[in-house]
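Extended Data, panel c. Modelled sequence:
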Amino acid sequence: MTAQPHRLLLAYYGDDFTGSTDALEFLSRAGARTVLFMEPPMPEQLARYEGLQAIGVAGMTRAMAPVKMEAELRPAFAALQRLQVPHVHYKVCSTFDSSPTVGSIGKAMEVGAELFQAPYIPLVVAAPALGRYCVFGNLFARMGIGSQGSIYRLDRHPSMSRHPVTPAHESDLRLHLAKQTSKQSGLLDILQLERPEAESLGVLKKMIAEGAEVVLFDGLYPEQMKTIGFLVDNTAEAGKTLFSVGSSGVEMALGSYWTQQGLLQPPSEWPDPGEAKPLLVASGSCSPVTSGQINWALANGFAEIALDTTAIAQAADDAASLLENYVVEAVTQVNEGRSVILHTSRGADDERVGKSTSLLAGKETSTSQLYGTALGRIVREVLAQTEVQRIVIAGGDTSSFAARALGIEAVEMIAPLAPGAPLCIAHAPGSPVDGREVNFKGGQVGREDYFGMVANGKEIQLNVL
């Protein structure tokens, strides 16, 4: 199957915002002009971006129940289907965060399979560039993306095995998925992937012919991603859309293959973003990786504003005065030249996490919606009152709500920072964040000095304000 240059090659729907910027980065690195929208774009919106080759939609389904997911995904997938692109990808977290009741990847597969009527669903979760490896169907993850942390089988991962919403109890993704859907899963394993491409393609086609509705691809080494891209692209039917599911490994694989085919031309270099201080950070992450980054930042000159999440939860819709206090404090610190971190927790052991979960148990509003929206509202007002040019939103589940509260319509990558978390320019008509730089960071992303690196625009060693 051959696509034409300067036409949309791929459209994806991300199940949260940080995961969506992850896919944005790998498409942009491959040379595809890509814009990430908050909602499926209208034709007039697409027309504003000349030379588009890929688009994304930053969704929020990772935090939804299956019924709500289906109501969200049907119109979103239908909108992407109307674009008549060769590939539509449902982008999930590289640690496969999901369960039968929250963020069900199986439910997304069922909706996509029904709508797109594809011969099978490629499932690509391995992303070696992010420290995510799939071997004989089992997922392994490095502790921290862009770090030198140890690699763990997913069900023994210190963070993911203790995730507060979707803890990982099974590393075999086929077994994990079987709890969410009855679709039959096959596996193209690491040994089959190492065969000559034509042989691997024959194995894959035989698997599909024998009834595999979903095929999981192993992946261990970066060079194997191009082979996966070849296999996925060459099982797409001409004139039809192939629906796939997986991490940004899908973009890595197809981008690598399309580059080899001459459809894409990776940029020779990216501009140096330079430093932007003071930096404003809003964290809704419970990850121990982010907790370590907050600790580093506080030891290196950042000011701390710890949100009283219990008070916010109890205030519910009447939290304006409470949030205004945080705005005043942040503006004061920024005007004194200090970078600021607003946070809702400092790790899963923070007592605020347990209290918030108890307070919101059985209620329609989730912790991610409540605190993500609160963080977005605070940041929006701080930006309206200061000259802050660069912000960080940390936390996959909360970031989607924060971005919407900020009034962001779309983002576009302007420079790489850490794998999976590019520096972007925000397109947000009528909002103070419009034209400013924003970095969305998943909980597992980055080294200990991450916030200092973002403030400096590059890797750093010493203190930063």
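The chain has a mean pLDDT of 92. This feature is highlighted in the accompanying rendering.
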